[in-house]
Automatic annotation (TrEMBL), chain A:
One of its GO terms (molecular function) is mannose-ethanolamine phosphotransferase activity. This is GPI ethanolamine phosphate transferase 3. The lineage of its organism: Eukaryota, Fungi, Dikarya, Ascomycota, Pezizomycotina. Its main location: endoplasmic reticulum. It is a multi-pass membrane protein. GO terms for cellular component: endoplasmic reticulum membrane. The chain crosses the membrane at residues 68-89, 522-543, 590-613, 619-637, 649-670, 682-700, 707-726, 751-769, 781-803, 823-846, 885-903, 976-999, 1011-1034, 1054-1073. Keywords: Endoplasmic reticulum, Glycoprotein, GPI-anchor biosynthesis, Membrane, Transferase, Transmembrane, Transmembrane helix. Pfam families: Phosphodiest.
TrEMBL record, chain B:
It is found in: Endoplasmic reticulum membrane. This is GPI biosynthesis protein Pig-F. One of its GO terms (biological process) is GPI anchor biosynthetic process. InterPro entries: GPI_biosynthesis_protein_Pig-F. It comes from Calycina marina. It is a multi-pass membrane protein. The lineage of its organism: Eukaryota, Fungi, Dikarya, Ascomycota, Pezizomycotina. The keyword Magnesium does not apply. Keywords: Endoplasmic reticulum, GPI-anchor biosynthesis, Membrane, Transmembrane, Transmembrane helix. GO terms for cellular component: endoplasmic reticulum membrane. It holds the Pfam family PIG-F. The chain crosses the membrane at residues 41-63, 69-90, 111-132, 144-161, 182-202, 214-234. The keyword Repressor does not apply. Pathway: Glycolipid biosynthesis; glycosylphosphatidylinositol-anchor biosynthesis.
Amino acid sequence: MVATKIPKPAPGDSTSIAAQYARAKARKDAEDTKVDSIFKSQGYEKPKPKNPVEKLNDRKRERFDREWSWTVGFFFWLLSLHAAGIYFFTKGFLLTRLVLDEKSSCENPPIALSTTFKGAGTHKAGCWHPKTFDRAVVIIIDALRYDFTVPYKQDGALNSEPAQAFHNALPFMYETAIKQPHNAFLLPFIADPPTTTLQRLKGLTTGTLPTFIDAGSNFAGTAIEEDNMLMQLRDAGKRIVHLGDDTWTALFPGYFEANISRAYDSFNVHDLHTVDTGVIEHIFPLLAPEGRDSWDVMIAHCLGVDHAGHRYGPNHFAMTAKLQQMDVMLRDVVKALDKNTLLVVMGDHGMDPKGDHGGESDDEVQAALWMYSNKGIFGRTDPAFVTPPTTAKIRPVDQIDLVPTLSLLLGVPIPFNSIGKPIEEAFAGKEGNAWENLAGAVRVAAAGTQRYQSAYYVARGINESTINTSEGTPHALWVAAGNSVGSGVRTDQVWKDIYYSYLSFQVETLRLFRDLWARFDVTSMALGIAILIMGVMCLLLYANEMAEESLAREDPELEKKERELELDSILKGEVPVYEDDQVSRSAAMAALMGSLSGAIAGAGSASILWAYIEEASMLDMAIAGAATGSGLAVLLSKLRAALPFSNPLPTSVWSWMALVFVISQSIGFASNSFTIWEDSQLLFFISTFGLAAAISSVRIEGKAERALGTYHSIAFVALGWLASFSKLCREEQMPYCRSTYYASATSSTSAPWQLLIPFLIAVGLPSIVKSYFASSRSYEGFAPVWIGWVFRSGIVLSAIFWILDAADDGDWFPRLNGLLKTIRVPIAQLVFAVAIGAGSTVFTYAPPCVSISQTARATSNSSMIDSKGTTVTILGYANAHGSRYLLLVVNVLLAVLMVQKPMGGGAIALMSWQILSLLEILDLNELTASPIGPAVLALLGSFHFFKTGHQATLSSIQWESAFIALYNVKYPWSPLLIALNTYGAQILAAAAVPAVVLWKQQPKKRGLLKNVAAAIAWHLAYYAVIELATTMWAGHLRRHLMLYRIFSPKFMTASMALFVVDIIGIFVPLIGFRLNNLSVAEVFGWPLS
Amino acid sequence: MPLIDPITMSSTAPSPIIKSSHPIELLPTDLARLFTHTHPAILLAAFTLSFPALVVNPVSTLLNSLPPLAIIQASYAVICLPATGTAAKLDKKPKPGAKKEIVPSRAPVTIFYALLLSLLSIPLLTTTQILFGAPLTTHLPHTLLSSAHIALLAIFPLVYVHGSDGKKWREVLSLYSPVDEVFGAAVGAMLGAWLGAVPIPLDWDREWQKWPVTIVAGVYAGYVAGKIVGGLVLRGKRIEFD
């Protein structure tokens, strides 16, 4: 930085030039080859004996490599520590439900039947209740939201908005429910979150509440072992046929009739039609009289509606088409239905305004349920109930109610775990007054629930006599319901009372289960949090020690002496010996020893505990031991090093600022409001830093530097502000937020004008990057080709990709659809090949971004006089480290840009401009060694996470990004693409961390590795503290109403972010810095150790 | 750029700007000493009294309270503060570059110009608020009026005492001015505005959470706190960043 930035020669500089001059003399011919090598990009080796200079360089290089390896070791240990902490917390936090093995059987109803009927206790007549149907067709229309099925009319006050694409496209269910109320009914069907298909299918077949622990295994379903509907049906001798979504075959392997079942891949959300077409193709032959004999129960699962939602959002003509197709299918199915078959059509969950699901917002849980039969046995207990509810808030039924309803209608026992209640409409009789039937059904279901509850208490080791029996509790309600049965003459009124008393028991029990279902393992959660706390403390101590060590080295007098000593010994032909650095080494060694002894201790204590506690897993105990042992060991060793002279509190306004940002955010995550409005908060902090930087820049003495500093600070703020217009609102932000990320709030496709953004980026961004290179005269070497041509072409290609994608989504060229996809995937693959493949190669082997000119006259001080007396000017010398490293950032940038939708690409482009401005700000204000730089980078990463169309919710994950560079799901590439899309901003910020240190750093700068390690540590510390805070809050607020809606998703988002940044931190900045340093040292020689 | 060591990149001198500037001295009258202590009380009382109206109707309340605020601030300036140009006489050691002539009846003109100049800062203050996340397409009158209040409270006295002295203003803008009650109050007002944004996102559903009530409240509280701290506790000190 010295050379181009300060025109006047500073006193220390002349010594370094003198030293270089002396060294240049000493090297003579060797020096010339070095200079040559800049042009030839790679020096050629001469088979001649090594002189002391070369030996010295070798020593320094070896020393650097050792120090670097220990640093990597430390960060790798940190990653493992974070993994262990998150593992233990998650294990205790994500609800686990004890799975009971008991099964219901036909002969043993949970309670003596209130009414005897002929053949009770047999499959033929009905096990626990007289059966109504022999056969059933269950059609699941994935993501069928309730408002898709009810008519919508724009009529001023209440429905002021015009109808959307999903309205009035599937009217059949509503029509039949009104016109033939005895044959059909339509009700809102409320899902228990998580609203992912796998969890929903578990809930729909077992009749229990799903637990969160399974949420992650959506894409690799595991077989259900618990008692469930299908198991009961199979035991009753029913033949089950399955069509559609292959999640079923994963959950129920071997259940389905082999020859006639058809399973289709479920994860390809870009494919709207294959599954549905397959279902329609095979369902009608099976329904036809000649096909009926081959099955008893049919399950058909259509995915088109769900995929249309994921891909386009509900308000898109593709959704209208899908719903109309379903309408036609249902009409045809009803025509083909015989009298003895029950038809059930339902959505397993809804979808949010953009068409995604997974969480527990209203739109996601409100599905629709429609039952139809030609028998005409359905009724309503109130004539007003004939009209299906206008919204899902009125008379909803729970999804767990399906299991008891279907079981009793088909005459099989209710599965043991079921805690739902029979649906009124199905048992109320034509006149709606079949109270005896209703009471019998709900009584046997309630008894099942009661039996399950007792069994669960026994399994959990809870003594039933200790539970609360006061009024209103399930226990009291159960007793009251039992009393209401009485023994006298049972009139309709008595049956009605019985019905309602059992119903209230069911409702209350369900509420209790929802509240208390699965227990949190607080010990495991606390262990996880303790490990995470240790991680944060180690990280901060490490960063501080690193920073202090590198500061201690910055003594110009000492350096001068050392330089002279080194020169002396070279002239004498000796090679000085350097001691290894201790900071990373001691940490890594302590971690290693601590984890080994901890693991042994943990495993040992597990084997002792084995005798007493069955649950103590050897592996878990070993991991816990290793994590705590190593954490304590590192903490102790670092504390011992830090305590004597370290001040634990920040010393400058900038460090305070970094601390205030991260602490106030951490506190804010205890409140749902601050969690919801995190993006605005981050903009506020980013602007605060920019304003402080502007104020600080005004203090700069030099006029030009002052102007530059102020300009970059204002640009930094303005760019962040501009990016804040890219918004994807979460449901809780309504109505104070307007989404701009997609064409509309109910779509997930880009608006046509947004497609221009990538082209604007292609035109502008490379020039902007170039201008920052040019300011330090570093637009030399590989930079012009790589940034001006390759980078720009890459962006153009990604712009073309998004045009093709939009053409495909918008059906611009209906005949070319297949072709569009065939073309665009290779384009994306090419961009990745350039950014990652070619980019890494170029970065590894590229010379520094400098060029050398030889002139006779003396120029500025970025020159030295070689042995022949001519002046050698090295352009870009002063930024040799930074400019070259930036090439790597550009590669990462290109890869991230490729996976972002046009609007997100715009945000990422603004972010990269902000990063460049930040580098200049930090350099001009001498903040390259302060924690504020890495902290602001982390703020930028977190901020632009939101600006690239994400939120801390499961439903905001852009699953379709898995198909950007692939035709099908491929492991591990599909998850990696999704991660790159989701955490693109954080990845870019993490990759840019070393640039904070390296920018405007001349080749002879010493101790860079320490500064880089400290910067990475500070950067990670931001994410680690945020993750720790969200973890602690999620644990603390585990009974909070908003846990699954706000705190838990935030905890998961923050944990994933920490993981991603941990891994990226090792692979991009550390390895990138090493390659960069080797290349710079190759050309300019190693700096003093 | 400050003097820096080219090898270590650390600054050798922590304070780059010439330290010749001094904190503002109040006018040496009893009335000045009395009024400078009543001034914060008047401001707080006025703000507290108009707070309910501010919550109900921010725009009209902020607008209607501008003239009284201008009068309070102008009286404060006339009674307590040395008008720009007169400071040279009050300083024990006169600044080499400052004007030494004093025009006795300068205050009214200075008041007028200071009011005019501080009004010019309103667009800048509004822009700053918007850059920090204030709404752009809606609530513009709200933001403009809250900026007007900041301008009258914080900027106007600064203009009144410093005039258009570029060097001094660079010191003020870089927060490097020696702390006195005028500068302290201005910094306090800004910090108050910053902190005032904190309760806005909370879901307490209170009327007073609406824009820009909390900001204005923060400005007034910060102004008063900053004035007291700057005038009594930290007087003469400078804000160092490093």
